Amino acid sequence: MTDSSGRPAAGRYGRVARAVHWLVAAFAVVVVALGWASVAAARNSPAHNTLLLLHRSVGLTILGLMALRGLWRGWHPPPPLSSGLARIQTGLARLTHFGLYLIFLAMPLAGYLNAAAAGHAVNLFGLVAIPPLLPVEPRLSQWAIAVHLVGQYALYLLVVLHVAGALYHGVVRRDGVLDRMLPRRHPSADGAA
Q1: pLDDT tier at 158 (50, 70, 90 boundaries)?
Q2: What's the pTM value of the predicted model, to 2 decimals?
Q3: Domains within the chain, CATH numbers bracketed
């Protein structure tokens, strides 16, 4: 496949990398919706508590998926970007990806620290209770929730940049960059990386 300039298109991510990417994206939408809904619910009501349980559980699921993604990427480096990209585009792509990785690791950790430092166990989908692994420390809890809230808006910004970049390459340039993360249109041999 070639890009719009006739140069070879960038390599594709493998099935596992694509699956984890899209799972994290889907869970990110869910965790944000649950977070907003829990804030809107009456504090300590059954609805609030259920929404908070689900928000925390999905957040920890994202943390687990990001840990898996990091390990996978260690053994399966991403395919190289197209040589047709400008240096600024390559730099923005790397910066945005690094920021997304950082946010998707830091936000669930900050959420857990907030709960743990407030003396609350975090229950994973009502199946497994993760006890607070540190003493009650209100100041740390407040710091952690502040990091979580700042991370929320940083996440919105990074997702907008990421989606805008993907759409620019997929709709305007049609250079194959977006196709790197999309499922194949035709069944063929596809790497597991």
Answers
A1: very high
A2: 0.85
A3: 15-180 (1.20.950)
